[in-house]
Amino acid sequence: MTQEDTEGAATNTQTMADLLSQEEYNYQRPKRGEIRTGTVVLVGPNEIVVDVGAKREGVLSPQDLDRLSAEERSAISVGDEVSVYIVNPEDRDGNTVVSLYLAQIEQDWQKAEEHLESKQLVEGTVIGYNKGGLVVPFGRIRGFVPASQVVGFPRRLSPTQKNDRLAQQVGRELAGQIIEVDRRRKRLILSEQAAQSEWREKQRRKLMDSLLEGQVVHGTVTSLANFGAFVDLGGTDGLIHISELAWHRVRHPREVVQVGEEVDVYVLKLDRANSKIGLSLRRLQPDPWSLVDTKYFIDQRVVARITNVTDFGAFAHLEDGIEGLIHISELSEAEVNHPSEVVRRGERYLLEIIKIEPERQRIGLSLKRVPPDEQAAWRATQKAASRPEVPEASSPAEATPSPPEAVEAIEAMETSETAESESHESITLEPEPETDGAKEHIEDEVPLLDGSTASEDAPADTPTDEPQPETLAQEPVA
Q1: Residue 177 CB partners (closer than 8 Å, separation 6+)
Q2: Is residue 274 part of a domain?
Q3: Is-cis flag, bond preceding 447, omega within 30?
Q4: Do 229 and 304 share a domain, yes or no?
Q5: Where a domain ends, among 104, 135, 153?
């Protein structure tokens, strides 16, 4: 062997030694409780072997195989990368014992801690309960929602009543926020109350993205205010302004809808920037003025009730949404200084139609063109009728008289031709009542709580009284 060969062999020996030393240095012996990513190298009927980068391959324990469902086992194939939990770095046979199930549990705890930090919502189905609250799954671990953190759960219930209430919650979808993670004590505590406002905001954004103006949606009336009614559309509320409840004048929303009533509503306006939804109930009903030509005609006798008296004439209610004007010149053959000298608000008269303008939403009426003897005969008939409040109709207007209480609700109307139509073109969205989610302190005894519970469902806040928008009067008919 030449000197060069000797030097080359020495160099190769040194290089091999360096590589072995480097490999030994880089090798990290598995530690109990560590989670490693490995590659499945064998899937047998009674075993699964995973290469975890150790000197020996990892073997799943028989108990771990039993914890896997048939679907989970059939989904594992050779070459798959999986996360495993190191149960024993080296057993008596020199094997590394690993667990897929415990790795999934550990990952769920890590995810729970991330949710705790980020306050991300957890959505799940209630799968059980105990005397302290509800059980909701979080991956492979179980989260607990104390009764005091369940939205709307009443206070001061007897043990039997509380148990029954909790049992009724099983199967419902629940959105909660993780408020405590204690891996050592295996405690994962959630609060539905803490998540309520965030969940509603999430639902609001989701709903706002899906809604379109002109769409018809289903909802439930949640609260009433002087200016309108709030409707829950499934996570967020929209407002039906009082002017959009019906084609006729509405004194208060309770005349049309009630809290808890389910209604179909028309999406009138979307304000995505402020997350506000304007709704309409009347847009789903035919506009009474569109049917005027089919119901009324010139020279027709109609019975109408006086709703308002102004300097230039008197307005008379024919049917819901339809009013006509008796100009001061059509009240009497004699000179009239003010309409109140001839007619009074709330009284009914036999009138004659002298003008119909559906496109301008106007009907002209006349009192003086009904002869006095005909008016007297009609009044005599009213007195003789067995049901004077519902006289025999001589026209469609008479068949749908306005209730007396509605008459008193009509305020003095101003002389503006376009004001009433403008009130239907725009909608004022009032701020929605906000509900602050209250957090309660969770005692260390959870899940075996002492039974303290959240307050009874409080009725939705009703905004303070606001002045009712008046429907402005039409100009007198020439």
Answers
A1: 119, 120, 121, 122, 190, 191, 192, 194, 195, 198
A2: yes
A3: yes
A4: no
A5: 104
Q: Calculate ∠ Cα 76-77-83, nearest 5°.
A: 55
Query: For the chain, what percentages of helix, strand and coil (3-state, to nearest 5) are there?
Result: 30, 30, 40
pLDDT at 275: 80
Evaluate whether 370 touches 317 at the Cβ level (below 8 Å).
no
150 with 269, same domain: the answer is yes
Determine the Cα–Cα distance for residues 111 and 109; give it in Å rounded to an integer. 5
Instruction: Tell whether 129 and 276 lie within a shared domain.
Output: yes
* pLDDT at site 228: 93
Q: Could you tell me which of 53, 30, 50, 32 has the C-alpha nearest to residue 40?
A: 50
Q: What is the distance of C-alpha 219 from the center of its chain?
A: 8
Series of mean pLDDT values for 10-residue runs along the chain (478 residues): 55 52 56 82 82 79 79 82 83 82 87 90 91 91 92 87 91 90 90 83 81 90 93 87 87 91 92 87 83 86 91 89 89 90 90 89 90 88 65 43 39 38 40 42 41 38 39 37
Longest CA–CA separation in the chain, Å? 148
**How many residues appear in the chain?**
478
CB 457 within 8 A of CB 305: no
CA within 13 Å, CB half, 40: 18
The answer to whether residues 301 and 243 belong to one domain is: no
Domain hosting residue 335, numbered range: 288-410
Nearest to 282 by CA among 252, 323, 241, 318: 241
Q: Helix, strand, or coil here: 406?
A: helix
Give the domain CATH number at 128.
2.40.50.140
Residue 125 falls in which region: left (phi positive, over 0), alpha (psi -120 to 50) or beta: beta
Same domain, 271 and 138: yes
Domain boundary among 377, 410, 443: 410
Q: What is the 3-state secondary structure (H, E, C) of 201-214?
A: HHHHHHHHHHCCCC
- Which uninterrupted H or E stretch holds 103? helix 100-118
Predicted pLDDT at 402: 41
In this structure, the answer to whether residues 292 and 278 fall within a common structural domain is: no
Least Cα distance to 161 among 440, 451, 450 occurs for: 451
Question: Structurally, how many domains does the chain consist of?
Answer: 3
Sheet holding 121-125, edge to edge: 121-125, 173-182, 187-191, 141-146, 133-138, 128-130
Coil, strand or helix: which one is 349?
strand
